[in-house]
Amino acid sequence: MAHITLVLPFALPLPEFAPDLIRAMNTPALALLLSRASGATRTRTAEHTHALPHETWLARALGLGAAGRVDVAVAAMRGFGLEPEGGNWYIVSPGHIQIARTHLTMADTRQVPLADDDSRALFATAAELCESIGHALRYGDAQTWFLRADDWTGFETATPDTVVNMDLTDFMPKGQPALAYRRLQNEVQMAWHAHPVNAARETRRLPIVNAFWVWGAGRTAPAGTQLQTQPLASVAVPGWLGALGDQRLDSLGGLADLLSTDRTLVVGPLAEAAQAADWGVWLQVMGQLEETLFAPLLAAVKAGRVSKLTLVLSSREGLLETTTGALAQRKFWRSPTLDALK
């Protein structure tokens, strides 16, 4: 019997939309998992935090951050098969910064498709600039690069999902090295402005890549430190998050095999719709998850194949953590409800 922890980013609707969305949802298995729980904890997020609730929860659970920090760069590097040569490393997320009426915002990276060949061409240009000032740049995947900057300590940055559609003024990196970072970012942006990749993207009416977003600092562990692969599987998550675990899935088709051993499962297909406030699509994805995820999990709990199921559901504003098991599911007097999502 396994203990499964399911992390479901953006499964909590924003409070102003929650009553209408809950009425429209058709997810009876999720309702049973939530209402027949043996325990529940809800936390709210402070304003202007530098990471989203599910990101800080995962970082803390994996031993990669404390006090709201998400120090995942080195662990993600190793997940991509890259070995840090010591020092202080950051994740670099290439993306698209756009001008709103009164401020700058960064687009959701999920809505800025970037092919591997195009990413590598932009990476090569950025790497030359970085290395000219003594900063190594390494390639993980199309949207996940790694920058070494040993002298950038006390550097406060925010995760890409945190700053999506927000005023970037509130999230621009702070700390003593911020000036050096902004100088490097400006140089990269100028080099990319006339880059053939961006010229081709404009022709195809795709958003140009003009953001060199640095975050997620992590320092290489001292020599002799034992490193372990985390029992974590993921589907539909950013590359950096998938790299933190031992399995990255294309779909939930193999869910039954994952339920045989203790592990954390991160399922991320709600993120894009929630970030765009496209609640119609969000409801559709919830309906699909009812069939592919919630119903199979409920069956596994009732049958005793999963002895303990912890649900970690989040929004931009907070996080709900509940626990259920076979005994809790026998509490027939508790009517199925989705009120916990409010």
Write up what this structure looks like:
This is Regulatory protein, RpfE type. It comes from Massilia aurea. The chain is α/β, with parallel strands linked by helices and 342 residues long. The protein folds into 2 domains: 2-49 and 228-341, Alkaline Phosphatase, subunit A (3-Layer(aba) Sandwich), CATH 3.40.720; 85-219, no CATH class. It is built from 13 helices and 13 strands. It has helices at 18-24, 28-35, 53-61, 73-79, 116-132, 160-163, 178-193, 196-203, 239-242, 255-258, 271-275, 279-303, 326-329, and strands spanning 2-8, 39-44, 88-95, 97-99, 104-106, 137-141, 144-148, 211-219, 230-235, 245-249, 263-267, 306-314, 318-324. The strands form 3 sheets. The protein has a 7-stranded mixed beta sheet with strand order 2-13-12-1-11-9-10. Strands 6-7-3-8 form a 4-stranded antiparallel beta sheet. It has a two-stranded antiparallel ribbon with strand order 4-5. A hairpin with a 3-residue loop joins strand 12 (306-314) and strand 13. Helix 2 packs across helix 12 (279-303) and helix 5 (116-132) packs across helix 7 (178-193). The longest helix has 25 residues, at 279-303. It is globular. The model is unreliable at 223-228 (pLDDT under 50).
